[in-house]
Amino acid sequence: MLRALPCVSALPRCRATSRWFSEMAAPAEAISKADDVISRTSRLFIDNQYVEAEGGRLPVLSPVDGKPFASIAHASARDVDRAVQSARRCFDHDCWPQQDVQARVEILKRIAAALRTPEVCDALCVIESRDCGKPFSESQGDLGVCADTFDYYAEVAPETMKTTYPSVGAGATHFYARIAVEPLGVVGCITPWNFPLMQAVLKVAPALAAGCAVVLKPSPLASLTCCALGELVAAAGAPPGALNVITGGPPEVLEGGGSTGQYLIDHSMLDKVSFTGSGSAGQKMLEASASKLRPTCLELGGKSAFIVFEDAADDLDHLVDWVMVGIFQCTGQVCSATSRLLIHESLEAKLVERLLEGIRSIKVGDPLQKGTLMGPVVSEGQQQKVLGMIQQAEADGGKIHSVPLELPKELQQGYYVPPTVLSNLAESSAAWKQEIFGPVLAIRSFRTEEEAIRLANDTPYGLANAVWSADRARTQRVAAQLKSGVVWENCSQVLFPSTPFGGRQGKASGFGFEQGIAGLKEFVSEKTVITGDRTGYSWGVYKQS
Ligand code: NAD
């Protein structure tokens, strides 16, 4: 069980950890508990209460078998307004932003403890796996990250929110300065479906730690665990309006042509939007914020490279494992997936052979069953997109390496994609250039270090990259030249609550940070106060003589 592994808390957001639990099937009692949680919480959460939406309900299909298994509330413009007004009241009139940071710290710690409670954790993992298709073991890894993230911000908030007193210089004897760190305000948080609860927590935990009030809108493709977060936050002692959760489209549109997400970002009472998702939706966030001159943090997609130098031949077992972690976790639906493998030409044939052996060992199937290492992708649309890109790669002259799926009858309507490796790709091919967001690894070879760096950087994205070599000077030299917000040396996808994560400024993976102190600073506003000492001193510039 997750809670029995002490090292999990040291490996937050480390999707690699989930393989340790891969033998774990979802416990039967957690499966029946999950249904209770869904029926209680799959509504809007406003003012610390579950309420129905005016906009009706949307069916939720499980990617596991393509069948409906729940429904979510579809928030109308008025529902969105209710949620924003509630957050506004909390921020403007409740003591939430003014109260001592220690009181918020205690709430964060209680949320973390609740997430670690075995019955809560297991039920949420079942819901997550059914809703977005990831193996139960991966959901356990995600839940561990969520708890660790609340604890991390509980630990660092007091120091980060402290007023500081900078020196104003030896000559400025009549003045003092202080810099107060204040909560930013009401934040609209919009999140994707690949790590549904975790992506939400990466925003909600630091926002609450800072004293902001949040309106969270998760993806309609996987909202259910975020709905349940509302009651955990309220039960931990957060006042009404500190966290409101609303669900609905896009892509689903309401009567009159609007959508829940668009109504939220168009609302005039938000002080900030924090978004994780695709570049095209990121543009909509900026458009909605532009007329309001509203700060907007964007965490967008990527097409990260994993560079493998010739000396990797000495340690192929570990290398192959990291390469597979980099692309096959969460069925490849990871923004930072190292989806382009750049191999030194001397190793290409051997490594492709080893990867093929590796993908043969991946059990694809029901995410709640024992031994499943890969579930379906999230939706039929995503399945068709990924399969279409594989077909296109073949039509463009690429070579497909894959193993046919063997699915039992009851899963055949689910949204499965075989783990696939593509080689012989042209630099200009879509499979090499574009984010596929599925279990598809694109391979090219290189001859020199300069060529590897050029190929890795030849992308509009700038989220992450990885480099593998036994030569430490080389990995450091290459890391320094890779244009991304994160670089992994001799590993992939490893992140901690304390390490900031975000796209490189100026590239197409967004701007702003999650995790680390930088992730907390996204939700604060610093105020400089300069104090004169009132000792009858003035500059005398306009002195009447
Ligand atoms: P998406 O952009 O389609 O949707 C993300 C969220 O935005 C959803 O909640 C959706 O309902 C909402 N949305 C979409 N259009 C909107 C609009 N006009 N107004 C308001 N809300 C709107 O992305 P997705 O398909 O859910 O997720 C996949 C994408 O997310 C990939 O590109 C992936 O790389 C990216 N991603 C990035 C990170 C990161 O940390 N950088 C993490 C996970 C996913």
Automatic annotation (TrEMBL):
<dbReference type="InterPro" id="IPR015590">
    <property type="entry name" value="Aldehyde_DH_dom"/>
</dbReference>
<dbReference type="InterPro" id="IPR016163">
    <property type="entry name" value="Ald_DH_C"/>
</dbReference>
<dbReference type="Pfam" id="PF00171">
    <property type="entry name" value="Aldedh"/>
</dbReference>
<comment type="similarity">
    <text>Belongs to the aldehyde dehydrogenase family.</text>
</comment>
<protein>
    <recommendedName>
        <fullName>Aldehyde dehydrogenase domain-containing protein</fullName>
    </recommendedName>
</protein>
<comment type="pathway">
    <text>Amine and polyamine biosynthesis; betaine biosynthesis via choline pathway; betaine from betaine aldehyde: step 1/1.</text>
</comment>
<dbReference type="InterPro" id="IPR029510">
    <property type="entry name" value="Ald_DH_CS_GLU"/>
</dbReference>
<keyword id="KW-0520">NAD</keyword>
<feature type="active site">
    <location>
        <position position="299"/>
    </location>
</feature>
<dbReference type="InterPro" id="IPR016160">
    <property type="entry name" value="Ald_DH_CS_CYS"/>
</dbReference>
<dbReference type="InterPro" id="IPR016162">
    <property type="entry name" value="Ald_DH_N"/>
</dbReference>
<feature type="domain" description="Aldehyde dehydrogenase">
    <location>
        <begin position="50"/>
        <end position="529"/>
    </location>
</feature>
<keyword id="KW-0560">Oxidoreductase</keyword>
<dbReference type="InterPro" id="IPR016161">
    <property type="entry name" value="Ald_DH/histidinol_DH"/>
</dbReference>
